[in-house]
Each structure stands twice: as C-alpha cells, then as structure tokens.
C-alpha cells in the first residue's frame, strides 16, 4: 500500500448552523480523500466542530443557553450536513470531547517544558468574531472613530492576566521553514503574505484567558482556559491519539494537508508550526488556504439577508451537481461566486447533456439492440485507438496530476474535453446506422465507447460519487475494479454487460426566482 495520507479541514464554529463556505471546504477535502483512496493510499480524513472560546460562550449567553447545549445542538447540524453531502470523514471531531482536553494539556506541557510559556498581562485588541488578537497597526478605520480588525470585524480592548507563548523566538525558524519548503503554504500568494507578516516581526502570543471558563483548563493554573486557537489546532493531533504513541499517530502524522480558508492561514502557517516546533512534534507537510465562496459576488451575511442553507441547495439541485459545480466553476485557491442559475447551467450542460447523455445513449442502445452485452471482434481502427488514448490519458494522467495539486477545475476541464471527444465520436461513427450496414463494426464502436465511459466514471468518481457508482453499476464493473489502477485494463477487450441503465443526471429546472445573469 502506498504512503498513508492524512487530510483535515478546519473545525467549524458551531455558533450557528453551517453555511455554504463550510460545505465548500468539506466537499473539497472529501474529493481529495476519495481521490487518494482511489490512488491506493490509506487515507485518514478528519473534520468537525470547534466548540470552545468566547464566541461560543457569548452566543450561548445571548440565546439564554449553555455553551455545551449550543455546541451539542449545532454540531449535530454540521454532522448531518456532511452526511447529506456524502462526506467520507473517518472522524467527526468535537473539541468538547474528553480525549481532546487531555491532548491539549499534553501539548501545553510540552511547550512549557521547552521554556516557551510565561505568565504576564495582556493589554491589546481582540476580535471575538475572529477569535484573534490584533496589533494596533493592523486595525482599519470603520468610520465614526470605530476600529475594526483587518477582516472588518469589531475589536475590543482587552486587559487581563494571561499566559504567553514565546512566538518571537520562532521568527527565524519559521522563515527557514518557508524557505526550505516552498510548498508548506499554498497557493503561492498566501505564502508571500505569511512570509511578509513573519518578516515584519513576531510578538509573543497571549494563549490563555481568565474572563470566562468555557475551554480547556491550563494545567497548573486552573483559573485560566487556553486561548481557543491553541486547543482548536491541537484537534489535528488528538484525532490520531496524541499524546499516546498510537498506531494511528505513527501512521498518519505528520498530516499531508490542512485544508482551510484564506482567513485562517496565519493561525495554521505561523502559530501552529511554532507550537509544534516548541513541543517537539513533526510539522504538517502543507497548509492550503482556499478562496472564499460568494453569492453573486457578495459575501453572505445575516444583515444582507442572503444566507443560503447548504441543505436546501443539496435538496434542490442534488448532491452530485452541487459538488461538481463547486469544484468545476472556479479554481480552488481563488474566490468564486455561485448562484442557483450557475449551478443549474453547469450541471445541465456538462453532467446531463454531455456526460449523462453520452452514457445513457450508449448504454440504452446496447440494452435495446444488443441484448445487453457487447463483445467486439472487428479490428480496432485508428479512430478508436485515438479516442481510447485521449480519454485514458485525460482520466489516468491529466485529471490525477491536476487533483494532486488541488487544481480541481483544471482536472475537470481535461475530463470534460474527453467527454466532448466521445460525443463527437458517437456522432461520427453513428452506431445506429452501423447496426444495419456493419454490425461487427458497430460492436467495436460500442465497446470503445463503453471503455471510455468506464474511464470517465472512475476518474470523476471522487467528485460525483453517487452518479459514478450508478454508471459503473450499469456497466457491471466489479467493485474492486473502480480505482485508478483499474484504468490500465481496457474492458473493451472482453465482454461488456450493460444492466438496467438509468439516467444518472436528471436535468435540473431553472429556479423560478432565478435572476438574469
Ligand atoms: O475559522 N467560503 O471556523 P469557521 C469558503 N473554528 N470558506 C469559508 C467561508 C466562505 N464564504 N466562510 C468560512 C474557524 N469559510 C475556526 C477554525 S481550525 C483549527 C479552527 C471557511 O467556522 C473558513 O475559512 O469560521 C474555515 O476554513 C472554515 O470555513 C471554518 O470557518
């Protein structure tokens, strides 16, 4: 078995129900997890909820409930959403679980043993919404004398006794890390931002709070709870059994990639490696900061009243169409915009009309006219070979190479070009006409197409797992021959049996309230 592979998403704040950004990140991570499994790697995939901190405590207070009750309720919505979206996580993590307290305290003690924690007094700006400290110089003017964080969130002046982490000590080691591992932070633009931030100088970080108690207790100073980001980041270790020397930890740490949004790159690419260096734990291999999803170019917000429930999108358009759209429409590192119309257009033109139509017309033709089975004996002609080569190359080389780099849109573009080539071949070869004139040649054409459809369905299966499985079932492809290694064998060389083909991609109706684009 090839190298084990560990991928994580951010853990999400369950101070409300999940939004489309949460769905986007988790779908992308799921595609990577499924893709690596199909590459033959043993994969561990973790997602979950980040339940401590002031933001949760305040929200619970506003609602007249306890943080634990709020977390229990909201975390359930996240898990339900991820199950609905066909997310193949191995562990759904909750930071309020007992094993996580023990792991966070162990990491704390390891940093303390290295001389990196000291007690002092914090005086400065804090944004509860971002759960982040900011320097005065980073703040922006919100008008009328109001100061806002660089993310545009309110900040408050905070004074309290606090433990500090000697982040300043790690400035040079971090810069060396970025220099020696150019892929540690991706995409490149985000790496440049982080490097500039670290080069400008690092101040020690306040890592505990005393003004509330919803969090992990600081060992030996029980009136302090850890700064929520200290325990949140530790989730990546806890999920593997840290601090015990478990088999899971040995196998999967260091993580191959922490997949997160662009707003939290600093926590993952500055604080996290510094904590790990201090505690003597190996560093993750890559932090990838994806772009933000906007609705018709705008951020979703309760104030604008344009918040979409991702469960409704899944119900309205189907899980596979939604997954396909989110990875196909724009490149993963960049911000992207979505709208119901754009989802419908993309799904109808590429999934229903192109790939779905190809599969359905070939398979239903075989079911109707060939007794459901095809064995080709006529010679393979150059046009057949050229199509097989193009499709096989797109599926076994181009798409996987792009997906390895998280360039999903580019990989799907190669895949789509292969679908177009198949449709052009069907039109040119016209198997329905060959049925009368040259039935042997017709079988060769159909076999070639079935080989191509098999390749296309396997290659795209990490993105649209349910529809791909349906197509592969209809082509009678055995369950153990649906990975990328299987693409080396051409089913067109044997007998292909088609069973009960059903359209895999229903055509979607344009929503009635669709806005003109
Ligand atoms: O930041 N488009 O949690 P969170 C794409 N608990 N991604 C988005 C997005 C959008 N519109 N809005 C948010 C936290 N995200 C912390 C993480 S990890 C140890 C702790 C992404 O619920 C965001 O960038 O605010 C982050 O990666 C994830 O959703 C969770 O955001």
Report on this structure.
By secondary structure, the protein is of the alpha/beta class. It folds into 2 domains: 239 residues, Rossmann fold; 149 residues, Isoleucyl-tRNA Synthetase, Domain 1 (Orthogonal Bundle), CATH 1.10.730.10. Helices cover 48% and strands 17% of the residues. The protein is built from 17 helices and 19 strands. Helix 1 links the parallel strand 1 and strand 2. Helix 11 crosses helix 12 and helix 12 packs parallel to helix 14. Bound molecules: ligand ME8. Ligand ME8 binds next to strand 1, helix 1, helix 7 and strand 14. InterPro entries: aa-tRNA-synth_I_CS, Anticodon_Met, Met-tRNA_synth, Met-tRNA_synth_2, Methionyl/Leucyl_tRNA_Synth, MetRS_core, Rossmann-like_a/b/a_fold, tRNAsynth_Ia_anticodon-bd.
Short description:
With 517 residues, the chain is α/β, with parallel strands linked by helices.
Task: Pick out its properties.
binds ligand ME8, four-stranded antiparallel β-sheet, alpha/beta, Isoleucyl-tRNA Synthetase, Domain 1, Rossmann fold, 517 residues, 2 domains, single chain, 48% helix, 19 strands
